[in-house]
Design brief:
Largest sheet: 8 strands, mixed
Distance between the termini: 54 Å
CATH topology of the largest domain: Rossmann fold
CATH class of the largest domain: Alpha Beta
Number of domains: 3
Shape: globular
Structural class: alpha/beta
Strand content: 5-15%
CATH superfamily of the largest domain: Vaccinia Virus protein VP39
Length: 446
């Protein structure tokens, strides 16, 4: 594999500035989490939060646990192959750091260095195997190549045919990016402040802050911190929001006075961003099939000072038609969130892709009935899988001739075709792997 295309995500960090005296004990006591992951269960973030809360863990111990849990989660397949069950969280912890930067034998046990040597040799061989097939279609890999792909990236083999990549080299580039840890992203709430003011205020706490590469609304925090506990967050000065999610709101290109529906709103994060973009001058409605999830966003809306109306029933949505824009951020496999949620790589099964696609198609069909002539439907997923993205849009367009894709601009990203991916290899981009399609209604039926 060309050096510029292959970038390690393991053994790249300096030794952490943590008290490691009790690290073996902390990780050994968390064996239930290792078993949870080894059995393929999830979601992981909820399980970790519950464990930390139940054990009243301090900052140092939480950091050690996080390194161990997410290191194992990110490299589950290969670590299970080379380490015993009781070693998995320790291996996950140590796999983050440059070899030799921690006294492994003195702190964690004399057998581990030899196992890491075997692991790293195996990784080298898997890379060589994939390099030999660099220009081949992923679906054409032989058994040795499929094994190398699956163990190196800890993803199921079905990704080779279900993923969006034309060549093995392209798949390797994106999954290398997807296996690296993501720093927290936030969106400045411009209804109350500016991006520069949020950055300046956070930097006063000694945090390392940089602007996001493509979204003009967001910042990246390179220093670990519980941002949700800060006064700035409680005052509604910013929202925790992935850069890709911010770009979906920008892709709607909302304008003052428009009627906009967020059809799968969840906690209304994208609706809040749209409210900020339009300076509270749009008529925004949030709806979600799962009412509890929707109502969880009420506090966020109030904190942000956003003008967003909650529709608790679909009948309330129908009473408001037609809309200028309907956003369908559809339920999906979430495989594009692997930087933040590495456990998604083993929890999603091949048959799930078709199930999600059926739901996504139904949602697009419903959205088509809600949008006015000349209005648009914005379809998005945080999935890498073609079956949830291009295939869903192509089927919808074949059955709804009055719709056609139109170009769009989202911050520093633009699409002439109107149907595009935000790949994790996009230069400077550290957000989720998103798919976006902007479809305009051209007929006069409404």
């Amino acid at each position: 594999m060309k050096e510029a295309e292959f970038k390690k995500w393991w053994a790249t960090e300096k030794a952490p500035e943590l008290n490691l005296k009790y690290a073996p004990k902390i990780l050994a006591q968390a064996s239930t989490l290792a078993q949870f992951m080894a059995a393929g269960k999830g979601p992981l973030d909820r399980a970790v939060s519950e464990y930390q809360r139940e054990n009243k863990m301090g900052k140092n111990d939480r950091a050690i646990l996080g390194y161990g849990v997410y290191g194992f989660a990110r490299n589950r397949a290969c670590l299970k192959r080379f380490f015993d069950a009781e070693e998995l969280l320790v291996a996950g912890f140590l796999d983050h750091f440059e070899r030799g930067s921690i006294d492994v034998s003195g702190i964690f046990g004399r057998n581990l260095p030899g196992k890491f040597k075997n692991l790293d040799e195996a990784r080298g061989k898997w890379i060589e195997t994939l390099s030999a097939h660099h220009d081949s279609p992923p679906s054409m890999l032989d058994e040795k190549g499929r094994t190398a792909f699956s163990f190196l990236f800890s993803v199921p083999e079905f990704w080779l045919k279900a993923g969006p990549w034309d060549t093995v080299g392209e798949a390797v580039r994106e999954l290398c990016a997807g296996r690296r840890r993501q720093s927290p992203h936030l969106r400045a709430n411009t209804l109350k402040t500016t991006v520069d003011e949020v950055r300046s205020n956070l930097e006063r706490f000694g945090l390392s802050i940089t602007n996001l590469a493509i979204s003009n609304m967001g910042l990246k925090v390179d220093t670990p911190l519980s941002l949700a506990s800060s006064d700035l967050f409680r005052e509604g000065m910013f929202e925790l929001q992935d850069e890709g999610s911010q770009l979906i709101s920008l892709a709607c290109e909302p304008k003052a006075g428009e009627k906009i529906l967020d059809l799968c709103a969840g906690g209304s994060g994208k609706a809040l961003a749209i409210a900020a973009i339009t300076e509270n001058q749009a008529n925004i409605t949030s709806y979600d099939k799962y009412l509890r999830r929707l109502l969880n966003g009420v506090e966020r809306i109030e904190r942000a000072g956003a003008k967003v109306e909650i529709a608790q029933t679909f009948n309330e949505v129908v009473e408001k038609i037609p809309f200028d824009t309907v956003l369908v951020d559809a339920p999906c496999s979430s495989t594009g969130t692997m930087r933040r949620n590495p456990d998604v790589c083993w929890r999603v099964q091949e048959q799930d892709i078709a199930s999600f696609a059926a739901i996504q198609g139904e949602l697009l069909t419903r959205a088509a009935l809600l949008v006015r002539k000349g209005g648009k439907v914005v379809y998005s997923t945080c999935s890498l899988m073609k079956g949830e993205n291009y295939a869903v849009v192509e089927k919808f367009l074949s059955e709804n001739k009055e719709f056609s894709p139109i170009s769009f601009k989202a911050g520093g990203f633009s699409s002439d075709s109107g149907v595009s991916r935000l790949p994790m290899t996009l230069e400077g981009y550290e957000g989720d792997g998103y798919f976006i399609a902007v479809l305009r209604r051209n007929d006069a039926s409404m």
